[in-house]
Amino acid sequence: MLDITNLRKTFNARTVNEKVALAGVNLHLDDGDFVTVIGGNGAGKSTTLNAIAGVWPVDSGKIVIDGTDVTNLSEHKRAFLLGRVFQDPMTGTAASMQIEENLALAARRGQPRTLRPGITRAEREGYREKLRMLGLGLEDRMTTKVGLLSGGQRQALTLLMATLKQPKMLLLDEHTAALDPRTAAKVLEISRQIIEENHLMTMMVTHNMRDAIAYGNRLIMMHEGRIILDIRGEEKKNLTVEALLEQFARVSGDEFVNDRALLS
Amino acid sequence: MNLSTLFNAMPGAIAQGLIWGIMAIGVYITYRVLDYADLTVDGTMATGGAVCIMLMMNGVNVWIALLCSILAGMLAGLATGIFHTAMGIPPILAGILTQLSLYSINLTIMQGKANQAVSVTKFNLIVSSRYVRELSLNNPIFISLIFTAVLIAVLYWFFGREMGAALRATGANEAMSRAQGINTNFCKILGLMLSNGTVALASALFSHYQGFVDVNMGRGAIVIGLAAVIISQVIFGRFFRNFALKLAGVSLGAVIYYIVIQIVLWLGLDTNLLKLLSALIVAVFLAIPFWKSKLNSMRKGGVPRA
Fold this sequence. Notes:
Radius of gyration of chain A: 19 Å
Mean pLDDT of chain B: 94
Largest sheet of chain B: 2 strands, antiparallel
Order of helices and strands of chain A: EEEHEEHEHHHEHEHEEHHH
Number of helices of chain B: 11
Strand content of chain A: 15-25%
Largest interface: A-B, 33 and 22 residues
Largest sheet of chain A: 6 strands, mixed
Structural class of chain A: alpha/beta
Number of strands of chain A: 10
Low-confidence stretches of chain B: none
Distance between the termini of chain A: 32 Å
CATH architecture of chain A: 3-Layer(aba) Sandwich
Strand content of chain B: under 5%
CATH class of chain A: Alpha Beta
Radius of gyration of chain B: 20 Å
Helix content of chain A: 25-40%
CATH superfamily of chain A: P-loop containing nucleotide triphosphate hydrolases
Oligomer: heterodimer
Structural class of chain B: mainly alpha
Number of helices of chain A: 10
Distance between the termini of chain B: 45 Å
Helix content of chain B: over 70%
Shape of chain A: globular
């Protein structure tokens, strides 16, 4: 369960570059909810995810994940609740470390790092199995440095790392935006599988309206730091891109001007 | 120019190279593993010796004195770590602040004198240049090799543990580390302490080797450390993939550096110009990756980014 109340964040406050990124966000998610998040550039989608992850402190409001008030917890202290995949494939993995070392780091999320072995033989076998399920042949390259993998492979690995130790919530921040269409589709499909198998509460930011409609049981649209649309259930199943654009224009009094969203 | 003079100078160059190689391994921990250019070492390279020599002059057992040196070095690393993580000071400046503070602290430890000597006949020194051409267990080359081997073994063990892996991850990708629940500030401080503890060990050994500690003996240490790291990367980079081998490569890099210096001096270079030469060599080697990428992007027709 996720409860966000009246979340506010302003960047560069009291300067000429002042930018209100979150202007009072309220959101409640139930366990197992898979929400897609859309909106134009600067609408506050990634900012919301970063606020949940604790990348910086928020100005006001409250974030409760699974009964834990994380509002004032530092990023690494709330990491045990969260699995995260980022837009840039470089961000989610350590390039100079091996595939198995990256997985071993992720397997210890939420545990104190002690002087026990960084990776054990038994763990390796488990990772091999999980990598096999990705279907990318990574199970035979476990000691390869992650920096040698393609963007798609790195995103798939990051997904696996994010869910290796089951999180209370999965945050996907445009995690297929930097990939070519075929790889993006594959990574998205792997995401769906993992989310369904583990019944994970998920927020997925995307610029692709078709994906936003096709995936998940709920869709929210953000505009100028607020959630302006929240569509779920039957209504979401019957949604079309055209209907979504119409709704956006009605609610925001604005055209949805974003070439990436329209063309994709 | 007499070849035998050069030949006679070689054992000394090798012994010095090995001791400075221990220092270079400390630099490797921050510069390569943690991706943090730490200038604290210029101060720590005198602190270790100062603590060790002064304690020994006051009758403390040599091994306890050595241990205290290492702890003093770790404290210096802790100070830089706090400057950086708790006070938000950029890495290079944080190191410079500690380095400057250490100058006063080192002088205070050395009771206000710029140098303090210990005689090998009166004190039980671990290594001494006196035995550098002697074929015995007292030979500083032999003893330094043992220190290097033990140090590499300990570091190899540590970086294979959960904590060591977290430290490596922090250096490789901070955002990812925090997302995986790693306390990156703690890891940075730990890395700085490990590094400066290692440098202080080298400092203590070097003051034993030369029979005195000098408040300026750490000046330019970071440059020598970087030179060793870069030399090892250029010469052994292709073959030494294993972490322990990489550390051994750094030690060898320092030995090569001292041999080259010895040859340059033998060729008649003015000793006053030595540090200038070191700095220029390191500058050129640091530039090579940049030039390479610039050349590559020009070949591809792209615009090189400065």
